[in-house]
Amino acid sequence: MQIKKEHPLERLLRRERMPHILCTGCGIGTTMANLVEALEEGEFDLDKISVVSGIGCAGRVAGYLNLDGFHTTHGRPIAFATGLKLTNPDLTVIVFSGDGDLAAIGGNHLIHAARRNIDIKVICINNFTYGMTGGQLGPTTPSGTWSSTSVYGNYEIPFNLPYLLCACGATYVARWTSAHAHHIKNSVIEAMHHKGFSFIEVISACPVNWGRRNKLRTGKDMVKFFLEHTEIKRHPDPRDALIQMGTPILCGVFVNEKRPDYLDMMKAQLSKKLGISEFRGDGKVTLPEEEKKVVSEMRPPKEIKLTQIKLAGLGGQGIALLGLIMGRTASIFEGYSTVYTQEYGPEARGGASSSGLIISSRAVNMPYTTAPDILVIMAQGAFRKYRKDIRENSIIFIDKDLVRPQDIPNSVKVYAIPATRMAEKLGRALVANIVMLGFFTAITPYFSVESAEKAVKMSVPKGTEEFNLTAFKEGYEYGRQYGRA
Amino acid sequence: MARDVLTGIHFLSGNYACVEGAIAAGCRFYAGYPITPSNEIAERMSVRLPQVGGVYIQMEDELASMAALVGASWAGAKPMTATSGPGFSLMQENIGLAAMMETPCVVVDVMRGSPSTGLPTAVGQADVMQARWGSHGDYEIIALSPSSPQESFDFTIKAFNLAERWRVPAIVLLDEVVGHMWERVVIPPKEEIRLVFRKRPSKPREEFLPYKADKDLVPEMPIAGEGYRFHTTGLTHNIKGYPDTTASAQAPLVRRLVDKIRKNAEKIIDIEEQYIEDAEVILISYGISYRVCQYVLDKVRSDGLKVGIIKLNTIWPFPERRIQELAKQIRAFIVVEINLGQIVFEVERVAHGQCETILVPHAGGHIHDPEDIHNVIKDLF
To answer: How many CB pairs under 8 A join A and B?
Structure first.
């Protein structure tokens, strides 16, 4: 008889990494062999397969397989795999890790990946314990059994993983024990062909750290135990899959259903809106031709001194939009150094809205309007709040129906316009802010009509440009009666 | 049709400008979790990435976001995430993994008042040390600190280039004020934006060693799915990428991870100097605090005080050589930062007693009152 030099599965294993670290009797090695057999038998493109592991005994498997392999952080292989898959959807991504890694520290990623039905194949070694660290209690340790941190017996209820995964939306869920080599192999092949989140739980022998404490001291004891205490069903109900000592371990394929996966759902939603057929993180996507846009030249600003403008009113009056349009006018079309800030945080609550704008022909360093030269006020409450900022020679713009300025220095110039009434007359109170912008443009020397109109056009909803420009003109004409400030 | 590079003159917030910088740099993958004051980055990414065929995914937490970034990078993406203090803390685990696996990626931290939940809507600059060594162990990263929306755009591109060049996570340390303030942002034509890509394997699979570094201490990087069948791990590893948990494997690996930044620091460091020639006192600052310093500087210079400024565009690696040099020439450094002393310790260490080092601290929640800086300067003259 001739002895073959090469192991039949050598093509898929990294020989230089052998011997592996797994203990005698451990179910991880045999499950890894089942995975390798499945990959051989299924004739998959091995260059396109990535294996991702977390931390723990099972986490070492990514390092033994002759594939692209990623040995990541504790609990995060599914999140890592999500990044791989969404960047290059042509990859087949397998996560091979343990119950502690996937269901305890990584439990959040497990349930969310299942919910998204992202096309990742998860093989979860469930050996009831933390093997690498010495056999501590885990989220899958059966009640009443012993571990290095439950020496009086475990009084927690373990996860029923098939039930959890089914509830979260995984579309392929199976469970076997490490004694069911053939079933594991077939399940892996099924999962490889399945498009969507696949979860194969392998109840696995850990004689050294779990078995030893639970009267199953050898690998043989454990395999015998599994074979004697397993019930394989054709359509098992995941609700019956809780593992309890004294009742059989329910095995089989709990779910195998077709449903659009994460990428399908993404494409369906985005493609019709954007006219793009593929989305991937590596940028290898053909995009529709883009139209060339003429870029306007920046114009040098006319000389103005640094001017602080405070804009204030009630939420819904469009104060933030007014500030943004004034900012665009000043910055893009007049070429001033411009800083725009919105009041942010708890003080912005309660219906008040305010923004600050600083414009200058020189660089502006300080971002906030601490001593406004001009205040634009559209509500009495805002007037009360910012009354303290009004100084000698301040200029204030008000909606004259909504604001009664009281108790202000005589030197203050007040420019009043019934902006909201005028906007209502035009048909929509909403454009009172644009009426005010027209008024401001007419009174102050900062903005040309052309610049302000351009900024209005680029800032208001499509289709409302003409209406807004009419509002702007109304305010502007009203302001011309006053003359320049 | 929306384009990847929005060439033209814009009026943008720092957070929005950051997104445009990322997309112009070739970022097509974003994974994140909502947190104030960084939300506008995620929101605009969710609009812009699909327009250029990229992927936006909102993950279940920041642990997942950062892990997804590392995975995405190994599949060939230039990935980014954005967060703020509490989320940045959660990301540290996989920032460490990215450093160990040598994974290019960009993490934006829009700094707010802290510690813990702190001041979600108000400014802080107290994450600068966390950016350097927030994950456990010895490693070096690169961190940049923009002081305006324009720099938010420019430095985000730069962060991607540096991450790709040196195979490290690059941290963009925005702060709440720069993130939320709006200014003019000029986006240049696409062909004028210089982009850097990671080194790819130059040898066939049989001869390729994924962690064998070149002279610049940076190894070539394979990508999943291209047939290299490589292995990478967060464990201490040898040049093959295989675990080797021995002291003799640890030394060359960790030394190289650190040295590839320390020994190439002069190529990475970017600082701006003003009025240094005759300065007796030099302000050192970054981010929004730099602008307050600049405001004060303009005043004191017109009063004839010999004050200069160093603006740290990159915070890490730290500009040791230049600060050492200047320490011999001047009377004092004044460090202005919105924390109770972080960068000041670096300055003090490097100045090594050659000149005085003074901190103008701020506990957070607001920018400095310029008077506080002005008074410290006046005391020195």
So the answer is: 254
